[in-house]
Fold these 4 entries.
Entry 1:
Amino acid sequence: MNYQFWKKSKKDSSKVKKSATREWFDAIIFAVVAATIIRGLFIEAFTIPTGSMEKSLLIGDFLFVSKVNYGARTPITPLSFPFAHHTMPIIGTKAYSEAIKLPYYRLPGLSKIKNNDVVVFNYPMEDFRPTDKKENYIKRCIGIGGDTLKIVNGLVSINGKVVNLPEFGQMTYLVKTDGSGFNPKVMNDLKIQGAKLNMEGDYMLNLTASNEEKIKKFANVKAIQPELNAPGSSGNEVYPFDAKLNWTRDNYGPILIPRKGETIQLNLSNIEIYKRPIEAYEGKNKVEIASGEILINGKRVESYTFRQDYFWMMGDNRHFSSDSRYWGFVPEDHIVGKALFVWMSWDTDGTFLSKVRWNRLLMGIR
């Protein structure tokens, strides 16, 4: 008796070997799907294009951002080209379709956003793009929902307690010398940037607290002081763009940051502060002022209960940062993730042997 009847014949036509092209295609599809899942739910690589976080983060830093810490945000605009954010490279067209839009949802995370976390988020003022396709920004979270923020002469305070500038944070200083200049090599070694203002020896320098102490001790330095914008000196250039408030980048607030479930009393003095988040981030609301009364969707109101948490973001390079002082609150649904560490840093101005900033490789972000 033939006990091998169950074995398939060598000529079994159902067993077809894939071509090399098909195997490569399947491998590429698998890699794209796997990478998309990893980028969307776990960790994503970003690069620093501007100096708003210097010297905590430098132009040319490549960093990993965790989606797990705060909980991954599920796609709001799922139809998009892989690995392109909002614009296709080279051709410059949109890299996504709005044919399908999903509601905002965030998976459970390991922690909540805390004060002083370095956070990647979508730039909130780009109303012409879906939330998850807005430009990515990175800043330090200075205030969270429920905090009251105030800035006096460049010093930030949260709930009445002064928040020191981060170790490598910078501010602009007016430096008066005896007319002589600074040694270019010393300035280069300290990585100090700035400009000479006049022939009398006045300089405008961007300094960390450490470099300010060093410059102060130079023999040719007569005086040094922060270059600050006094109250009322900036017109209406800072959020909420109300000249009556007299707020500037260095003298700002107090301002209460909304928290989910918190009811804030509204009046004619603060409505401009909260009008933007109520209209733009809290659903399809219309805020109006008529005959001295505040109307939301045509109904008179004296308060509003917020539906999500909000955050106040600022760059460590305080006088060269476009941040919440200029465009207001960042809502929770715009949060992308927490910056973890720098895995690579590339200095375009370096020499052949110093292009890579070796001391920054695998540097944790604080």
Note: The chain has a mean pLDDT of 92.
Entry 2:
Amino acid sequence: MSRFSPFNVVALTFGFAFLYLPIMLLVVYSFNENDLVTVWTGFSFKWYGEMFANRGFRDAAWVTIRVALISSTVATAFGILAAVTLVRAKVFFGRTLFTGMVYTPLVMPEVITGISLLLFFVNFNIDRGMETLIIAHITFTMAFATVVISSRLIDFDLSLEEAAMDLGCSRFEAFLRVTLPNIAPAVAAAWFLSLALSLDDVVVSQFVNGPGSTTLPIKVLSSVRLGVSPEINALSATLIGMVTSVVIVATIIQKTRAVQDS
């Protein structure tokens, strides 16, 4: 049976059209000269200039980047500690509770997480702002980092650490010099996943942000509620281009390494 039967071709065509046609239309209309996003009158780059000149977008993007970098780094560090505890400490008091607390954000709706954090900050009279936003992002991204790192630690050969300790290293030094370099790809994957989740978050951020801590997704959502503007199209197209470029570069690097290894 041929893989490219007429049915498969039609299904694949409709599938890709459903997924990517709206994105392609958005990119095309980001170059529309008209103020109306649905009426094409000519090709122009002016909305990209307007988008880069928009101070609100620039400030929101800077907040988003700072929060994502800080929260992903801290979440990955906590994820390493949590993963080591879950994988190596087989039995300890409160293990079930600790495991549940670590993995709960994975299955809990973001609305519940946002409301819970909001009530926590309100009860302790903590003013919402950059600090609360970072804490919230660490809370829900740490669970994903823990899962990624734990999956690598489970397969790690402990005899390597034991050999390092036989040669004079302490347990902590053996972890830093032997274990951490071996699980570095998982740690990097956990960091990038936490970074992506933080950059993309809207729901939780809406509950815990404050004056001066509006992220770019929240800024875009607030602007769209008043109507889609050509600047939003230009901003979206720019983000799509950035993500596409990163994916292409990562793919090229991966294929290059695969060729070198072979």
Note: The CA atoms of residues 7 and 13 lie 10 Å apart.
Entry 3:
Amino acid sequence: MNDADPSPARLLDGLAALLDNHPHTRHLIVGYSGGLDSHGLLHLLATNRACWPGRTLAAVYVDHGLQAASADWGEHCAHICHELDIPFQVLRIDARPLPGESPEAAARRARYAALAAELEPDAALLTAHHRDDQAETLLLQLLRGAGARGLAAMPTASRLGPGWLLRPLLDVDRSELLDYALEHGLRWIEDVSNADTRFDRNYLRQRILPLLRERWPAVGRNLARSARWCAETADWLDADADADLARVVAQRPDALHIPALRELGEPRQRNALRRWLRRLGLPVPDARQLRHILHDALTAARDRQPCIRWPGGGVRRYRDMLHALPPPPLEHDARQTFIWRHETNAYPPLDLPGLGTLRLRATFGEGLRAETLAGAALTIRFRQGGERVRPVGRHHGQELKKLLQEAGIPPWERNRLPLIYLPSMPTLPHEGGGNPSLLAVVGLGIAAEAAAGPGEPGFLPVLQSPSATGFGIL
């Protein structure tokens, strides 16, 4: 069957192959904007759902709040989904850009973050990106001076949060989707902003690509082929970067050993840094920012703490470690206190806003002695200064400040580490000035007097980051 055939059978080919490659994906969620492309994909799935028994189908509309008509578009999407008997929901997001971030990038970042939060491990978001979109993306990346990973444009399948992002129409021209929509009498929304050539993608779509097609009719297909070759090259570079990162990454995944990193040549350093940041879910810095990292952070004196920031992320040096920084976190008030109550034979996960979720993981021979807790209400505080604790393996209590320095905990993280207290624990000995009820400093250690002994049941406190990256895993 040739590429010009607009029949449903051709449109289904890529979809069927993609789903066959992801057999554990049981819940399909279409990113539905109400436009031609996403309506075509949604209709194709809905009218052929019998081809994939055991899979559910739903649709989601993301309301960025950037257009006056966005609420009306959501109602249109709801009506179409009702006609197709497809569960539907609206996600309203805050798409305000970060400092230095373009409105388009901010909307994309906020959109995918909201969609990722909706996915379970057995779910996939399906988008209607097609071959014309792929050509535009490759040209945009070329004009931005992107490397192999950027020129790979959009992958057919990639991880999104705990689930998957699938693009089954990347080998389909938009003209084929238009033919399909007209043949089936679909009603879609025309977003007038798509004609606004102040936006780079629209300028390429409206002005540049039509000229290229006049001279080279197969330009879309050829650019998509180039993107596939670049993807192969990028995968090879990623494999090299992974080998280098295995030698330079620290015990925590969001930190690298600078002396080991400096042993690599600059091309390998840049390749490893890009790969490292992508694995952490951070946007990759541009060439200028990468130069700052290589020539400022990596070469700074050991007692300096240079920080390089870019929209959505950054890095900072502390001693001989390069730490990745997530987007600027919510303001953290170190004076706040949380009560962690025992419920139904367990301590439920405790949400610490801006920090993550605190959990107690059942263990043997490590963590807090189960007998010490005995179902008591715990108090969670943060460092104020003057705290003392005797960690496991130490004979005397020490100032928490010195212990944090010894452990190499970066200064900007120290007042964000949860301190677990038992309101009253008079049986525990303590050094003068120490607080006998300080049980644990999450990310540092357990007080020796409260620690589980060999073979004793215990609970290990763990702070899990609100994101899917390595940040805050303590």
Note: Confidence is low (pLDDT under 50) at residues 1-6, 425-436.
Entry 4:
Amino acid sequence: ANGDLSLALGILCPISVANALTQWGDATQQSKYLPDFCGDRPPLATIAVNEPVPLFNPHQLATRAVQRGNDWVLNGTKALVPLANRSEILLVAAQTAQGPAVFIVEGGTKGLSFVDDRGMGLRATGLCRVTLEDVVVPAGAKLGTADFDYRQFIDYGTIGWCALATGTAQAALDYLVPYVNERVAFGEPISHRQAVAFMIANIGIELESMRLLTWRAASRAEQGLDFHRDAALARVLCAERGMEIGTNAVQLLGGHGFTKEHPAERWYRDLRAVGIQYNGLHL
């Protein structure tokens, strides 16, 4: 994401699906789907968690999955799903009688429909709103077995969004430092102005805070330790400071920040997306 958060998200979506199948998929699910990810043409795949409701909480889903015989029937709407209308595999989060779960839904399944869900950012990923209307999947489509940890599934995604925000914020700082040193106003570089210098310094401080909290959460996850609190703390910081850094990047470039001639306006729009992903996590 050091340069383009939207493209990075599009690249990471299929990898995230493969990782989820590797970590939680049962033997049948792994043998069916994972070999294609190692082939010459790996499938496009995505994860659908967000829903178009106020104060969305990924642990309280409006999308429902009801068991009917040997099948599951899914109904609901997912929002801002990257690559959705082109994906061959979708991991869809839905509420069951036992709590939230994730289901493997193949692209082209009857009852699955898509419309563009374009927002101010993440335009390179082709965001879609996904409607599931009596989508029937077999019992074996429920991800994992008794060892599946839905909270951990969400927390891994949280760390991913924090990493994306950190990379984009780093790109902004790398662009801003030479700009303010070379941009001359009133006979001197604008970096000589304290207001500008302090703003750049604050971006550097906030960026390191974002990076360290993200690393700590990722480190605990890699060691097999509980990382829920660390992921939540990182998300709050990266969402708030990421949006602030995007705003300040536009501000420091002045009129150039508003034009597409410079990348700051894209970073601003993309970093806003981090603030709305998986809203409602609990510390």
Note: Confidence is low (pLDDT under 50) at residues 279-283.
